[in-house]
Automatic annotation (TrEMBL), chain B:
Protein name listed in UniProt: Dipeptide ABC transporter ATP-binding protein
The entry's keywords: ATP-binding, Nucleotide-binding, Transport
Family matches, as SMART domains: AAA (SM00382)
Taxonomy, superkingdom: Bacteria
Family matches, as InterPro entries: AAA+_ATPase, ABC_transp_ATP-bind, ABC_transporter-like_ATP-bd, ABC_transporter-like_CS, Oligopep_ABC_C, P-loop_NTPase
Alphabetized Pfam families for the sequence: ABC_tran, oligo_HPY
NCBIfam families the UniProt entry points to: oligo_HPY, PRK11308.1
Domain ABC transporter, chain residue ranges per copy: 21-273
């Protein structure tokens, strides 16, 4: 058997640790505990190890890093004011200094595309955080306590799940007077949480049935302790996976709503609203650039987040692959 | 402590000492309900249906029985992981079934559990140090904060693991090593009783002996009382001082290991023992195998009277009407032989051909 005798001293143990880690752990953080050679890898650091070697993750990560940078500081690559427009230059094609040309209102398309990233990233990230928090809270409660809690929350989930999101958007958002980014985010959170709640409920129920939760209970652990130390760390992976994949779709959803005229309103710059403006009166037939660039930006952004979600899923939940 | 356990081995523990755990008429029914929103009860799975036994300090009580007979439910009831439907569990004279809060936590310090599956009983997101140290987090009075790392390393050493492994994660260990970690966690609070629910059935045969021997050695060292649940009759005989045989939520027969293995009087025990593989071909030739017919009846709808009557070759009309009590059969009371032990059968008798090597 593989069990080295305890009295055998660290000799055998070191050998074992050595042969296990070997060539696999190339770099990675190695704080090196005293005596024990190197720190053992947790499941989280295993997942990170997988991720950092996944080309899909690296490409998506670079794209997203770039998106985040230009959302924070759009001035870095687009110095002009996106709202200073000149009708005289309406629909002019691309030229030096104005690579993407001008739209119907005579605004610089390049500047608007760059400034539009902030809206999309904000809506995507905030909706995802909101959905993840609300969804895992409600789903976690249902899964952990079961019984009446579960019955109530599950039925509520079913009701919200049944609302078609675009139709719901047309109804709810058209009733609101002025819509900011936060109106749209709240709407997405309101209709998006059931998806995460279902996943979280299932994950919590699965984790709850493990013997280590029973072991903690047998030791006298409190509900909070079991939840925080034992259930959450083992149930959080599927929630992270669904949320990351959903992030891309929320960005697309915001664009859809803005395209339909129930999303963001000027002066907020949104790719969806710009696409909508471009398709008004079929103007893109004469000037395809006003549709092409915002649409391309939107597609690339959504793609980047969905690729990130895929990579995260592969790393955290190999069974789903 | 060592003396005590030695003594219990010799006396067959039926001496005059106080039992540390007294279980009386323990019942656990799991309700069967129908309907999604408005649930109504349509019956109950009678997982444990009136079980009584004592556990004495320093002894090992083995519980055997086939899958689904309620062994694990008994363990969960003892651990207060499930509330019994009826009956009492007295720990040192105090009924622990209705305790809650602080009082329950105090009792839990003294009764700990070792689980069946070493792959699900350790949290994969925690280091070995955190897993074995968790009992100290929950019961901070046992070990002062600065002392914990040392205590955890001591425990690793006690169960035969390298104390250097403290920062490793469970997935880096083999099944046998994981079970040792589980045992170390169970020992951390210095309990008096350890309930082991099939602690070796998930392990390789080669490792089973190591773990069982470790448990025996720890028992002598710390004066533990074990409640050892298993379906492997040979392992139970190896470790137990007394053995109880369960069938369909009831205790069929209970006695010292010699009484049960050499002088079984309940037909179910005899059938079980006749199924134990015997390595010696000559003995194997001579013995008679009792092959039971049919399946175990559903615990939701157990047979009337004796639970075993539907599969018993001795069953008569009386067995369906009258539930046999778990008591020393009158025939053997005065005999003074090994057959004089509690057996829940109207027609208890010894049978020569079932003796296990």
């Amino acid at each position: 058997m593989t069990e080295p005798p305890a009295i055998g001293g660290p000799g055998g143990a070191m050998e074992l640790a050595e042969s296990e880690g070997g060539g696999l752990e190339g770099k990675g953080p190695r704080p090196g505990r005293k005596g024990s050679g190197k720190r053992a890898r947790s499941l989280w650091s295993d997942a990170w190890h997988d991720l950092s070697r996944n080309p899909v993750f690296l490409i998506a990560g670079l794209l997203i890093l770039f998106l985040v940078l230009i959302s924070l500081w759009p001035g870095l690559i687009a110095g002009r004011d996106p709202l200073s427009c000149n009708l005289g230059r309406s629909l002019s094609p691309s030229s030096t200094g104005h690579w993407f040309g001008f739209d119907t209102q005579g605004c610089d398309v390049y500047t608007r595309v760059v400034h539009g990233a902030r809206t999309s990233v904000t809506v995507g990230v905030c909706s995802t955080v909101g959905v993840a928090v609300l969804g895992s809270l409600l789903g976690g409660l249902a899964g952990f306590f079961g019984g009446t809690w579960d019955a109530l929350i599950s039925r509520l989930t079913d009701i919200f799940f049944g609302i078609p999101i675009v139709l719901g958007g047309l109804v709810f958002l058209s009733m609101t007077g002025s819509r900011s980014v936060w109106t749209v985010v709240s709407f997405i959170v309101l209709l998006g949480w059931p998806q995460v709640a279902r996943i979280a409920r299932g994950a919590v129920i699965t984790a709850k049935q493990n013997d280590y939760v029973q072991a903690a209970r047998a030791l006298g652990a409190s509900n909070t302790r079991m939840m925080v130390r034992h259930i959450m760390p083992n149930a959080v992976a599927p929630v992270i996976v669904t949320s990351t994949i959903a992030l891309g779709t929320y960005i697309a959803l915001e664009a859809t709503l803005s395209y339909l005229g129930v999303g963001l309103q000027p002066p907020t710059i949104s790719w969806g609203a710009d696409i909508s403006a471009a398709s008004e009166g079929m103007q893109f037939r004469n000037a395809p650039h006003i549709l092409l660039y915002p649409a391309a930006a939107l597609s690339i952004t959504v793609l980047a987040f969905i690729m990130l979600g895929d990579a995260v899923r592969d790393a955290l939940d190999p069974k789903l692959r | 402590m060592t003396e005590q356990s030695e003594q219990s081995r010799k006396n067959g523990s039926e001496g005059k000492r106080e039992p540390i755990l007294e279980v009386r008429d323990l019942v656990k029914h799991f309700p069967l309900s129908k309907g999604v929103l408005l649930k109504r009860q349509v019956g109950a799975v009678k997982a444990v249906d009136g079980i009584s036994f004592d556990l004495y300090p320093g002894e090992t009580l083995g519980i055997v029985g086939e899958s689904g007979c309620g062994k694990s439910t008994v363990a969960k009831l003892l651990m207060n992981l499930e509330r019994p439907t009826a009956g009492t569990i007295k720990y040192k004279g105090e009924d622990i079934t209705r305790l809650s809060g602080r009082a329950l936590r105090e009792v839990r310090r003294n009764i700990q559990m070792v689980f069946q599956d070493p792959y699900t009983s350790l949290n994969p997101r925690m280091t070995v140090g955190d897993i074995i140290g968790e009992p100290f987090d929950i019961h901070p009075e046992v070990a002062p904060k600065g002392d914990r790392r040392r205590r955890v390393q001591e425990l690793l050493d006690v169960v035969g693991l390298n104390p250097e492994y403290i920062n490793r994660y469970p997935h880096q260990f083999s099944g046998g090593q994981r079970q040792r970690i589980g045992i170390a966690r169970g020992l951390a609070l210095r309990p008096e009783i350890i309930v082991a629910d099939e602690p070796v059935s998930a392990l390789d045969v080669s490792v089973q002996a190591q773990v069982v021997n470790l448990m025996e050695q720890l028992q002598d060292e710390f004066g533990l009382s074990y409640m050892f649940i298993a379906h492997d009759l040979s392992i139970v005989r190896h470790i137990s001082d007394r053995v109880g045989v369960m069938y369909l939520g009831k205790m069929a027969e209970i006695g010292t290991d010699e009484q049960i293995y050499e002088h079984p009087t309940h037909p179910y025990t005899q059938a079980l023992l006749s199924a134990v593989p015997v390595p010696d071909p000559e003995i194997r030739e001579g013995r008679e195998r009792i092959v039971l017919e049919g399946d175990v009846p559903s615990p939701a709808n157990p047979p009337s009277g004796c639970r075993f009557r539907t599969r018993c070759w001795k069953a008569e009309a009386r067995c369906a009407e009258e539930t046999p009590l778990l008591a020393v059969p009158k025939v053997f009371e005065a005999a003074g032989t090994g057959a004089a032990h509690a057996s829940a059968c109207h027609f208890a008798e010894e049978r020569a051909a079932v003796v296990v090597a």
